């Protein structure tokens, strides 16, 4: 599963600066690298789940419904003011099949294109929110076979629906996170980039970056159950890659880890911080709010990411249970070096 590369909000330039090496009793030390990051408070976050309601989706809806508590993990950790709404991928009319579960009565229960399931959303104050979520994401399997997740999302957050039945769901200052859940390719009429621009424009030109989209879709058709008609969701993968979202394989045996990743991405908390230069790892000193975090504390680890055709990137990755709290200031000070991970926390200069 691909993880988003979240850029640092502010990275210091490599410079020789007189700064304390964490604790005051260590005295003043000169470092060549000095990075500063901020773990921002998420504040308001609006989450739109776009769930495929075609005939093959029942097992995936059931697994998603069982993981709501995990989905809320980092919303609770970050004290997020969240609103979670669900829509379907049905835009084209669905056809009733008399004598089956998809009779006319079932077709009539499908929300209008872009309409929120149950006509509302879940907040921290929703009574029995977990149970309600479990019901909402089970959107049924009688929807259109031409799944249009991107188009449905567009209709959900733009007029006329955003000013009528969905009014109040998208808050002006809230971060917007979309999650597309489907075992099929998106069949929406417009190019992916047009939808991305439309989603960003909902927040206005100055706030275009407070949006991301994630994709719980087919990434490997061979991993899906035998006899399924699942297809790789390349259009959903495209929007997730372009907006630093999370990508998960809907055909995975367990949704637990995937749902946790979606929670972290939607909450806006960060566990990974990219250094601006390659360090001499033995000199690396990490701090939170000017208090040094010992390298052997188990709270974070150092990694050097090397991808083909790209320059290596040095990163600090915090344990998910011990991430820097909202509104905290994270620092990384170091001399420049090879970045060799084997030198991390070996009893050297740090």
Number of helices: 9
Strand content: 15-25%
CATH level 1 name of the largest domain? Alpha Beta
Kindly identify the CATH topology of the largest domain.
Answer: Rossmann fold
Major sheet summary line = 5 strands, parallel
Please outline the helices and strands.
Layout: E1 17-20, E2 28-31, E3 33-39, E4 44-51, H1 58-65, H2 68-71, H3 73-77, E5 81-88, H4 104-108, H5 129-136, H6 149-157, E6 175-181, H7 192-201, E7 211-217, H8 234-242, E8 247-249, H9 256-267, E9 272-274, E10 285-288, E11 291-292, E12 300-305, E13 313-318, E14 328-334
Parallel strand pairs: 4-5, 4-6, 6-7, 7-8
Antiparallel strand pairs: 1-2, 3-14, 9-13, 10-11, 10-14, 12-13
Helix pairs in contact: 6-7
Give your account of this protein's structure.
This protein is an alpha/beta fold. It folds into 2 domains: 97 residues, no CATH class; 224 residues, von Willebrand factor, type A domain (Rossmann fold, 3-Layer(aba) Sandwich). Helix content is 20%, strand content 22%. The protein is built from 9 helices and 14 strands. The strands form 4 sheets. It has a 5-stranded parallel β-sheet with strand order 5-4-6-7-8, sandwiched between helices. A 4-stranded antiparallel β-sheet has the order 3-14-10-11, with no helix packed on it. A hairpin with a 2-residue loop joins strand 10 and strand 11. The N terminus is likely disordered.
């Amino acid at each position: 599963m691909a993880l988003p590369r979240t850029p640092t909000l502010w990275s210091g330039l490599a410079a020789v600066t007189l700064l304390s090496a964490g604790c005051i009793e260590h005295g003043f030390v000169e470092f060549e690298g000095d990075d500063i990051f901020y773990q921002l408070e998420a504040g308001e976050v609006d989450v739109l789940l776009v769930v495929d309601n075609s005939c093959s989706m029942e097992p995936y809806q059931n697994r998603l419904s069982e993981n709501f508590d995990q989905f809320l993990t980092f919303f609770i950790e970050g004290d997020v003011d969240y609103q979670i709404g669900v829509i379907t991928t049905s835009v084209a009319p669905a056809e009733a099949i008399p004598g089956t579960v998809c009779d006319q009565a079932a077709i009539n229960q499908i929300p209008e294109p872009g309409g929120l399931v149950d006509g509302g959303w879940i907040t921290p104050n929703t009574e029995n929110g977990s149970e309600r979520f479990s019901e909402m994401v089970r959107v049924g399997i009688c929807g259109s076979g031409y799944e249009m997740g991107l188009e449905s999302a567009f209709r959900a957050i733009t007029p006329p629906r955003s000013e009528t039945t969905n009014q109040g769901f998208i808050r002006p200052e809230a971060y917007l996170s979309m999650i597309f859940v489907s075992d099929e390719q998106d069949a929406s009429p417009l190019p992916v980039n047009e939808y991305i621009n439309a989603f960003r424009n909902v927040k206005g030109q100055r706030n275009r970056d407070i949006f991301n989209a994630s994709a719980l879709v087919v990434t490997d058709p061979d991993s899906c159950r035998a006899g399924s008609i699942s297809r790789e969701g390349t259009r959903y993968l495209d929007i997730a890659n372009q907006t630093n979202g999370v990508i998960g394989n809907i055909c995975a045996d367990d949704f637990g880890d995937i749902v946790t990743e979606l929670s972290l991405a939607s909450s806006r908390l960060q566990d990974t911080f990219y250094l601006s230069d390659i360090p001499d790892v033995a000199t690396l000193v990490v701090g939170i709010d000017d208090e040094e975090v010992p390298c052997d504390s188990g709270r974070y680890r150092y990694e050097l990411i090397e991808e083909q055709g790209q320059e290596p990137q040095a990163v600090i990755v915090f344990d998910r249970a011990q991430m820097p709290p909202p509104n905290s200031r994270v620092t990384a000070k170091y001399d420049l070096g090879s970045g060799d991970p084997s030198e991390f926390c070996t009893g050297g200069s740090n």
